[in-house]
Amino acid sequence: MTNTAIIGVGMTPVSEHWGVSLRELAAEAAIQALQDAGVQRPDVVYVANAYGSTFNSQAHLGALIADFLNLTGVEAYTIEAGDASGGAALRAAHLAVASGDVRTALVIGVEKATDIVASARVAARNISLDADYESRHGATLPAMAALLMRRYMYEFGVELGAFEGFSLNAHLNGSLNANAMYRNKLRAGAFAKAPMVAEPVSLFDGAPDGDGAAAVVIASAESAPDLSPQPIYIKGSAAATDAFMIQERADMLSFSAVAASTEKALHQAGASINDMSLYELNDAFTIMTALSLEAMGLAERGAGWQLAGNEGADLGLTGKLPISTFGGMKSRGNPAGAAGVYQAVEASLQLRGSAVDNQVQGASKALIQNLGGLASTAVTHILTVDGTS
């Protein structure tokens, strides 16, 4: 597969943007990315969005946002894969440019959650679950994550407080990120005492929904050095799926889609899992992070939680395994279908050496991974500063 490169990035803060529409959010990030890339008119636009139809009563976002950007006539589509929509759109753009039929592709991830509130938002998000066998019977994403976490705690004899290092690290990093939704630091010991959302998932465990948009411009690896002083190369791109419902998996505590997509992406990049300078994972819930680390081969089965020990010090910006370097979904906020594009922007800034207070020193390779549902879909990318094959 021919390599491609990210030549432009842009993003808005993740927040409650009450006075801004979905299309305006998307345009803000897109204009930043196009200006950063020095591109006026991309050949194709991919819009990543998970819940526009239920949050905003709006579908057909590709044409809507292209029109708002004065890009009428440009090929444009919406890419939807639940919370993995951003990663899926990035992969679609990568494949399109790698094919040679597209010179430049604009990827925009956007989500506008505050158009709907409280129980209505929970119900709107339930379209990521099985309508016939899960959401119809009262299941929600936090509830299913709670069942997964409870099973893990029982199976491996783990106490709830053992997961707190993931959230402590995310909030410590997020406190340095001006675009983060929650910049507060968490106190050690507070995690297990937080109000419960769906026991044992608490307010300090699950990532908060937020409004936001992020965008990248992708070009071929061959043309990238002429277009950008600091292109970031996509050396690996892979996606996989698992059984849709966790109760139908052969082993619900093994994220097979994560394992498969990681292995493929690393193989394409000619790299090993330990070669990465940083990892941006799908930390919508701490159990997702622990199981992802295990499926990727960074921890043994049942031992992913151990990496969060010592108040998450090993996961920090100067630790041996930096994750959630800008706060992840937990502190930066979770703009659902846009989350995977935020990962691409944040990892690109790290590799450019432009992450300011959130910089991982000497970063040269990054793994970004975006999950849909409870890892029903997994999309993994390997980004590097090196454009050689």
From TrEMBL:
> What CDD domains does UniProt report for this protein, alphabetically?
SCP-x_thiolase
Boundaries of every Thiolase N-terminal domain copy: 5-180
Q: Which residues form the Thiolase C-terminal domain?
A: 239-384
MF (Gene Ontology): acyltransferase activity, transferring groups other than amino-acyl groups
Pfam families found in the cross-reference section: Thiolase_C_1, Thiolase_N
Mind telling me which InterPro entries this protein's record contains? Thiolase (IPR002155), Thiolase-like (IPR016039), Thiolase_C_2 (IPR055140), Thiolase_N (IPR020616)
Q: Which PANTHER family match?
A: ACETYL-COA C-ACETYLTRANSFERASE, NON-SPECIFIC LIPID-TRANSFER PROTEIN-LIKE 2
| Protein name as it appears in the record | Thiolase domain-containing protein
Q: What is the lineage of its organism?
A: Bacteria, Bacillati, Chloroflexota, Candidatus Thermofontia, Phototrophicales
